[in-house]
Amino acid sequence: MTDLQHFVKNREYLVCVDSDGCAMDTMDIKHFRCFGPCMVEEWGLEEWAQPILARWNEINLYTMTRGVNRFKGLAMALDEINAQYTAIEGLDELKAWAASAPELSNGALEKALPAAQGPCLAKALSWSKKVNAAINALPESEKKPFDGAAAGLAAAHAAADVAVVSSANREAVEEEWARCGLLGSVDVLCCQDAGSKAACIAQLKAKGYSPDHILMVGDAPGDKAAAEKNGVWFYPILVRHEAESWAELVSTALARLTSGAYAPYGEALAEKFLANLGE
Questions:
Q1: Which pLDDT score, from 0 to 100, does residue 68 have?
Q2: Three-class DSSP labels, 74-123
Q3: Is the model's pTM score more than 0.70?
């Protein structure tokens, strides 16, 4: 297992796999226990906590904005809270920053604070740091792969090179996948430090794969968009149906990929994916 810079193509096919919410059952718990509750605490929203937390999960997990950047998701949620429950002071500054900043990270937000006119940017940074601390405090036993993911990755590795393509922190991905015994089915890790998912797929494709020999396995619209941008196939892991999705990858999708019969099958899967997120 290596990094993108040193990776060399070994087989004719490549399967790219996202981590959080796709192979690793970590996305729900992070939103249920960390992102949403920390927002309620930071902005003192306890009075409306139940509907606000339900809506947070819809935005970030169960609709077409699944997997959105945390600050974009925060701006969307606070915009609705401002309209429905209570005024959020300085919200327009956060919305403008989330919509236009070239980088959406804690470091970029820290650099924007000196010019802030209201409290919302500082509170957003405080929230983000609390989220990170809460995620780090989650028990390792609760950060595990989806049922069927290990078998799916092993089957993919028997037929193709396998790359993790994730926007998560490399150290976190490497630790989680090693602890769960998944790295034996992986040839290369492409994480946050390697660039966007689309950029990573483009660099992997440049190693010598035909575009129709590459499959991106993901759970969010951003994964589908990254595949489409590079002209490669997409296989969805359906939220709330993850085990079934991994089983179908083994039983059907890999054979479709390697036999050159993926196109009509992939189109049907894409429609199912969009319907599952309520487009």
A1: 87
A2: HHHHHHHHHHHCCCCCCHHHHHHHHHHCCCCCHHHHHHHHHHCCCCHHHH
A3: yes
Closest listed residue to residue 129, CA positions, set 25, 35, 229: 35
Question: Which amino acid is located at 211 in the chain?
Answer: P
β-strand partners of 215 = 15, 233
H/E stretch holding 235: strand 233-236
Q: In this predicted structure, what is the pLDDT of residue 247?
A: 98
DSSP string over 142-166 = GS-BPTTHHHHHHHHHHHSEEEEE-
Low-confidence ranges of the chain (pLDDT < 50): none
Residue 160's nearest CA partner among 259, 19, 15, 263 is 15
Measured CA to CA in angstroms, residue 242 lies from 39, 147, 194, 277 at distances of: 27, 8, 27, 13
Is the alpha carbon torsion for 140, 145, 147, 151 positive or negative?
Answer: negative
Residue 269 belongs to what H/E stretch?
helix 263-276
* Residue 145, φ and ψ in degrees, nearest 5: -75, 160
What is the pLDDT at residue 274? 94
CA separation, residue 34 to residues 25, 118, 134, 241, 267 (Å) = 15, 25, 6, 23, 35
Write the CB contacts of 252 (distance below 8 Å, at least 6 apart in sequence).
Answer: 265
Q: Where are the alpha helices (DSSP H) in 180-262?
A: 197-205, 221-229, 242-248, 254-259
What pLDDT is attached to residue 89?
97
| Separation CA 183–CA 250 (nearest Å) | 18
